[in-house]
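step=encode ok
step=design start
structure_in=
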């Protein structure tokens, strides 16, 4: 039974959106395996400060982000055009980075877009090429007064220590 073309395009767009979400989760949780899983083996990635393949990019990204105290990547609007087994995307993002700079906590925030080419191979959509365009950024002193005044506030963690990685625990809450 074949799926009508308009429904297939919606399913394709949803699969591409899901891989973009897995990409962001891989960054925030420092999950190299998850991050790498969204790229085809021969994919390319270009950011100006980095150009290379998925293995090199994932290693660089996880190593760099591991030096930060926290990261929070958020997706914005997504414009995805599907043309058969190839699709093109413009994906807006915000990236928050908490880092130590000369012993002081600083917040580095980037607003930008990914301009992507996705390809469906063997029935699976993955990134074939990603370009990161940075539209604006800022660096500010960290200012977590509310968190410091509210020690009972729950906070996130990296990797397996984050509640989102503890499905069995969430199951019983």
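sequence_out=
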């Amino acid at each position: 039974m074949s799926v009508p073309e308009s429904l297939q395009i919606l399913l394709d767009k949803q699969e591409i959106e899901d891989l973009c979400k897995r990409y962001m989760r891989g960054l925030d949780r420092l999950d190299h395996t998850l991050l790498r899983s969204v790229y085809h083996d021969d994919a390319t990635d270009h950011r100006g400060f980095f150009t290379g393949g998925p293995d090199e990019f994932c290693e660089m990204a996880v190593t760099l982000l591991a030096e930060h105290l926290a990261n929070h990547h958020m997706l914005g609007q997504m414009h995805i055009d599907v043309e058969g087994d190839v699709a093109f995307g413009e994906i807006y993002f915000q990236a928050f980075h908490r880092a130590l700079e000369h012993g002081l906590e600083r917040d580095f925030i980037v607003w930008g877009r990914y301009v992507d080419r996705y390809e469906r191979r063997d029935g699976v959509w993955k990134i074939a090429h990603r370009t990161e365009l940075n539209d604006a950024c800022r660096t500010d002193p960290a200012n977590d007064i509310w968190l410091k005044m509210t020690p009972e506030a729950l906070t996130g963690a990296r990797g397996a220590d984050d509640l989102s990685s503890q499905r069995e625990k969430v199951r019983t809450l």
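step=design ok
step=annotate ok -> The chain has one domain: 5-152.
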